[in-house]
Amino acid sequence: MKKWVISTCILLVGMGIVLYIWLGKEIEQGVEPNANGSADYMIILGAKVKPGGVPSLSLKSRLEVAVQYLTNYPHVKVIVSGGQGPDEDRTEASVMKDYLEQKGIEASRIIIEDQSTSTYENLVFSKELLPKETKKITIVSNDFHLKRAKYLAEALNFEVDVVAAKTPKSVEAKLRIRERAALLKTYIIGY
Fold it and tell me: Is the distance from CB of 134 to CB of 120 less than 8 angstroms?
């Protein structure tokens, strides 16, 4: 009986390691295809906002790459997508809009989606703001997050390309572990 328990534990640990590695490889594939200006709409996925409307490091890195992209492709309109968490004093979308405008992006190019509280809601609620015929979109998020975001967007019948923001080193390990669990959940239940 004891041998059976040990064998089962070894098997489960082995399966866990394989699953962990596989999910890591899946996450790495999220940074392709790289956006090239062919989509008329971009969605920046929200992330934590600190007190006083200060973007977290993750959100700031998303915004920095978005500004560069929007500057290079002036025909692209952008949806800033993110509601207000219980520990946030402003909506993520309002902080993103202010940041973009301060960096020279015209207000007429920015569409606000400020009700979402998850990646899935970011995409569902943003889709409602897009012209009905829109099929192709560009998603901006941190590199670790893009695989799941693309998966969810494709489930909503979008064709997706991406702009990958680097994940801040100070939070990378924690976010990559958490994202593996979120990606597995998404694969199992679909959102």
Answer: no
User: What pLDDT score was predicted for residue 24?
Assistant: 86
Are the CB atoms for 107 and 71 separated by under 8 Å? no
**Alpha-carbon span 166 to 63, nearest angstrom:** 11
Kindly state the DSSP code that residue 107 receives in the 8-state scheme.
Answer: G
Please give the Cα distance from 128 to 140 (Å, whole number): 18
Where does 2-189 sit in CATH, by number?
A: 3.40.50.620
Rounded to 5 degrees, φ, ψ at 22 are: -60, -45
Identify any residues that bridge with 24 across adjacent strands, giving them in sequence order: none
Give just the sign of the alpha carbon dihedral 139, 143, 145, 148: positive
Tokens of 130: 């897009």
- Beta strands, E only, the chain: 41-45, 49-50, 54-55, 77-81, 110-113, 136-142, 159-165
Cβ atoms of 115 and 127 within 8 Å: the answer is no
Q: What's the predicted TM-score (pTM) here?
A: 0.90
Question: What residue spans define the domains of the chain?
Answer: 2-189
13-31 mean pLDDT: 89
Side chain identity, residue 46: G
